[in-house]
Amino acid sequence: MMDYSMSERLVRQRLRDNKGRAYCADCMAKDLGRSPDELKAAIESLAVRERFMAAPCACGAPGLIYRW
Ligand SMILES: [Zn+2]
Question: What distance in angstroms lies between residue 29's CA and the mean position of ligand 1's atoms?
Fold first, then answer.
């Protein structure tokens, strides 16, 4: 099990590397070979930070996108 700071780093990096694409926890977990539960908390807390905003994932689930 990853600790929180590690999953947050992973999520942030993934979104930066894929600017313009929104990810939900399930799709990002699938891409990274992780469990969605590990990423969910990080995605939710980054959603209220600068540079990140909530946006629908390609699969239709609520997700997160890197803003600029
Ligand atoms: Zn998705």
Answer: 9
Give the chain as a 3 state SS string. Answer: CCCHHHHHHHHHHHHHHCCCCCECHHHHHHHHCCCHHHHHHHHHHHCCCCCEEEEECCCCCEEEEECC
Mean pLDDT by 10 residues, the chain (68 residues): 86 95 97 93 89 95 92
Question: Measured in angstroms, how far is the CA atom of residue 13 from the centroid of ligand 1?
Answer: 17
> Residue 33 corresponds to which tokens in the numbers above?
């070979």
pTM above 0.85, yes or no: yes
